[in-house]
Fold this sequence. Notes:
With 489 residues, the protein is an alpha/beta fold. The chain is built from 21 helices and 20 strands.
Amino acid sequence: MAKLEALTSWHSEWKDLRVAVFGLGVSGFSVADTLNELGAKVLVVAEKAEPEYLDLLDVLGLPSLIGENAVNFVGAVDAYDPELVITSPGFKPDSKAIQWASNRGIPIWTDIDLAWRLRDKVGRPADWICITGTNGKTTTVQLVTHILRAAGLRAEACGNIGTPILDSIRNEDGLDVLVVELSSFQLHYLGPIKPFASAVLNIDLDHIDWHGSFEEYQKAKGKIFENVEAACVFNEADPRTMALVEAADVQEGARAISFSTGFPGPSSVGYTDGLLIDNAYSPNRKAKELEFLAEFSDIEQIGVVTKHLLQNIAAAAALVRAFGVPAKAIQMGISSFKLDAHRIELILEKDSVAWIDDSKATNPHAAAASLSSFDSVVWIVGGLLKGVDITPLVEASASRLKAAIVIGLDREPVLAALASKAPDVPVIEIGDGESVMLRAVTAAKSLAGAGDTVLLAPSSASMDQFKDYADRGRQFADAVKLVAGAENG
């Protein structure tokens, strides 16, 4: 342990440190590659791996246990006698590998922990702005990064999105800010770091199967506020996020800053009269002079405007204002920003029916944000529920549902929730087999009329019938263009 405690810099003595790296995805390979550059001794353990990463391990000359060898790894890893384990989020706390390390008292890090220690590789370490939440993380991270760049700062999105964080800290040109998306999985394992600013966008039921309970999920999310230097940003509409700020041990001088879709109170960023307003950092806020950051017309350039999007924009503005970004750069950044595909994306509007792809809505909280944005919805829902009860979402959204199309492996709980909480809503079940999405879209077209929105907001993970949420969204878009597009006009 004393040896690890001394490893606080890229320039520390990492040579010959024995490290077992659990996982060989994007982040796992970046860990192995970085440690190899530092001269550490590395053993990679993974249940599966892409051939390209295995080839790269061979080039680096790093030993590995992959597939069946990894499942029965205890003897080999025991013999290796690692001083440190660095795990990918794919390894659950109750997995055999993690339990093995815990029982032997071996410290467990993530790539985030390693990057924090190595952040001084290129000159002055970049400041970290860290973001988590049940939903909206990726959009907010991307927007913060975009605004920072509009202000002339060298910023990069990393962590659970985009560039592996260890690649970011090795950027030869150096960076001013790392905008770090952190999942609850990463936060569960994360040790002490000191972000410049952090945000929890929202908290709702998700990943209960991984964490074991909602309490443990919330506890993991709250770690992002620990040791914050300047600003802890929370959602005024979500008391759970405020509670996490109140429980955090922050650095002296750190402020609690809220965001909302309503008028911003003291120490808040919000909206009034179609304007995004800063009432937290404005130099004249004590004189009750609020600072204008953007107009609604700027926000409309992004895409379909929903309450969820407005919250993400306000959160991003609160974070960059903590970093001193001027209002003009915020307006420029917002007006030129574009959402990724599959995030409340308008695919087609024809015959007064809007077809919306929100395949990224992989849990009830995200689906609720979509459903609440439209008045009459033909809802395509279902997939892998991840241990989450969809009944409250169905009950809250029943008045907006014109019909529901149920897909996915976990159809029975969805069908039961609809029967119980939305008994008057027509339901079509799409059975297993080929062309699931094409059949779902065809069914939706038969039910949708003028003024309706056909919404793919599955409230579930996608890996039962699709490669990932992006594949699910692409198949939806293709089917919409085929079934409802010009070919049928």
